[in-house]
Write a structure and sequence with these properties.
The complex is a heterodimer of chains A (304) and B (283).
Chain A: H1 11-46, E1 50-52, E2 55-57, H2 63-68, H3 73-105, H4 109-120, H5 127-138, H6 143-150, H7 165-173, H8 177-189, H9 193-201, H10 206-234, H11 238-243, H12 251-260, H13 264-292, H14 295-303
Antiparallel strand pairs in A: 1-2
Helix pairs in contact in A: 1-13, 3-7, 3-8, 3-10, 8-10, 9-10, 10-13, 10-14, 12-13
Chain B: H1 2-10, H2 26-53, H3 69-76, H4 81-108, H5 116-122, H6 130-144, H7 151-174, H8 180-187, H9 192-220, H10 224-229, H11 236-246, H12 251-282
Helix pairs in contact in B: 2-12, 3-12, 4-7, 4-9, 4-11, 7-9, 8-9
The chains are: A mainly alpha (304), B mainly alpha (283).
């Protein structure tokens, strides 16, 4: 493995690659497989067990998977996928142009750094406290209704704004925005400005440049953005719980109730289901994007 | 490509029409302001949270009249103190471990001949939704291994969540590190430790500090995985979540507590990322 041509033996290879770096990496990988891969495999395996009278029966069967789609859960799954896809689409529509502006249109470096800072901070904020505030804004006696009433625009408080699908969608828009913008932005910073200029010089309209240059080259970023947004959206827990008010049941609610009822196989099957949906949608996306561009070529551009 | 260029060269004045909806100058502005609007949706709740925390009627739409009642209630009600302490301890531990592991692994990975697979495996948890990872660890530790959950289980869950971020932060700098510097130091007689401490560490320092900070803050605010792994322990985000989900009367206290936490973490984060992004831009 580590045989190199005589002239190419670098210090790293000669000295530490054989001992230190390899050992550290190997050690890390062993622990990491035990902490990440193994639990996911066990999760998958548990979805083929079933629970009877609070006892998990360790015999492989499809019973749990069958019950998933009875008792109204099928409806819940459809609703979850629909809401997650809608939110992801909203993020893509708002996020792609914003990332493009940030990477190629923003002239001031300080504005760029400030926006990147604003996009990164939300990863580190507590979800519940900033979600619960929307209740005080969207609620029956909340900020918006109070303003509308006192300005005389409406004479009755609007109740559809809270504890509805609207409020769940609305509450999810801000938290899932950075996960869409940042990967696309990153992919776009690798696009050489000269390519855009060349497209313009050759008479391409901005729309043609967008469709033939920018979108194909930023496709890995777009796919990463969709995965990083869609995954958490499919498993959204805090937002539907706090803004749905029990009227918008998503898969996370099913997981929560199965968890409290000690039905571990159901928890496992529902959690696996989320990953399966994600994998299927990702596969579709990659197939679809093959028609638009050669993904491998886009990665080559990024590497160079 | 070649033929395209050829055509352009034969007809230099090619499409002279530079007009149409796609040439509208408003597009970039629209993109910019739509993005700013979503950012406003992120930060307005924080402002409102702070305002509500000093309001006498925090659950209504009008924040006035103002008072410090909620803060007084917060310091009288001591139930948040224990979760707060647990979270702080967890976050310090996760930050420290992430810093050490990310540094050790981050400087090892660029020396491998084919680092791609290792990096992919290391960042895999980023692709797994928090709920799924929490459930997986829960079933693995509780049911499969039969262990008692609690502090240490949350700790492991947080490491799985935060380490990929920390590792990437170190890798950004470690991949650019020039190993000839170490070679030179060795020729000049520096010991192995001196080579690390005097040469490699100062260059990697921003990444290492970032790794620790990421670990600390990601752990301090993590809720989805903690819900599954908490056992009988409670962290502050779980406490916030429980209080917010169950009793309306507890919400004002959460507003006050969250505002206090924000007033510490926001300036810290803003300062760190500002420095990081300005620096990255220069390099």
């Amino acid at each position: 493995m580590s045989l190199a041509l005589p002239g190419q033996v670098s210090f790293a290879q000669r000295y530490s690659a054989l001992s230190g770096a390899r050992v550290v990496t190997l050690l890390f990988l062993v622990v990491w497989v035990g902490l990440v891969i193994l639990p996911l495999l066990v999760l998958f395996a548990y979805s083929f067990f079933e629970t009877k009278t609070f006892v998990t029966i360790y015999r492989p069967s499809l019973a749990t998977w069958m019950t998933l789609f009875e008792s109204g859960r099928w409806e819940v799954a459809i609703r979850t996928v629909r809401i997650a896809l809608t939110v992801t689409l909203i993020e893509l529509v708002c996020g792609f142009p914003f990332a493009l502006w940030l990477a190629k249109g923003c002239r001031y470096k300080s504005v760029q750094a400030a926006v990147l800072t604003l996009l990164t901070i939300p990863f580190f904020l507590d979800m519940s406290s900033r979600t619960i505030v929307w209740r005080a804004i969207l609620g029956r006696e909340g900020l918006i209704n109070s303003l509308l009433l006192s300005l005389g625009i409406t004479d009755q408080p609007m109740e559809w704004m809270l504890y509805s699908e609207f409020s769940v969608h609305f509450g999810m828009i801000a938290p899932y925005f950075p996960t869409m913008v940042l990967p696309i932005y990153l992919a776009m910073t690798f696009i050489d400005d000269d390519l855009i200029k060349a497209s313009n010089d050759l008479g391409g309209s901005p729309l043609q440049t967008l469709l033939n240059v920018i979108i194909p080259l930023s496709l890995p970023g777009i796919i990463a953005g969709v995965v990083f947004t869609l995954g958490p959206a499919l498993a959204a827990w805090v937002e539907p719980g706090m803004l749905g008010g029990g009227f918008v049941n998503l898969l996370s609610n099913s997981v929560e109730s199965a968890y409290t009822a000690l039905k571990y196989p159901v928890v496992a099957a529902l959690s696996t289901f989320v990953i399966l949906i994600l994998a299927v949608l990702l596969g579709l996306l990659i197939l679809l994007s093959r028609r638009v561009a050669d993904l491998g070529a886009s990665f080559k551009v990024m590497r160079s | 490509m070649a033929s395209d260029i050829g055509i352009a060269l034969t007809f230099p004045a090619a499409p002279a029409v530079r007009w149409g909806p796609s040439y509208w100058r408003g597009w970039p502005k629209l993109a910019k302001w739509a993005g700013y609007a979503v950012l406003a949706l992120t930060y307005f709740p924080l402002v409102w949270l702070a305002l509500m925390s000093i309001s006498e009627r925090p659950l209504s739409g009008i924040p006035f009249p103002l008072s410090l009642e909620n803060y007084a209630a917060l310091f009288e009600d001591r139930r948040w103190a224990e979760p707060f302490g647990v979270s702080l301890l967890l976050a310090l531990g996760v930050g420290l471990i992430c810093m050490i592991v990310a540094t050790a692994v981050g400087r090892a990975i660029p020396q491998l001949r084919r680092p791609g697979g290792v990096v992919l495996l290391a960042v895999l948890p980023l692709f797994v939704p928090g709920m799924t990872m929490g459930a997986a660890l829960f079933i693995f530790l509780r049911s499969f291994l039969g262990l008692k959950l609690g502090f240490w289980a949350i700790f492991l869950g947080h490491i799985v969540w935060a380490l990929p971020f920390s590792l990437l932060t170190v890798l950004v700098l470690a991949t650019k590190f020039d190993h000839r510097l170490l070679e030179a130091a060795e020729d000049l007689g520096a010991s192995k430790w001196e080579r690390f401490w005097d040469i490699e560490f100062p260059i990697l320092r921003p990444g290492i500090v970032g790794a620790g900070l990421f670990g600390f803050l990601l752990s301090f605010n993590e809720v989805l995985r903690s819900i599954f792994l908490r056992g009988t322990d409670t962290t502050m985000p779980i406490w916030n979540w429980l209080m917010a989900a169950s009793q309306q009367s507890q919400v004002p206290i959460i507003f006050a507590l969250a505002s206090l936490v924000l007033s510490v973490t926001l300036p810290l984060l803003a300062g760190f990322f500002w420095v990081l992004f300005v620096k990255l831009d220069r390099s």
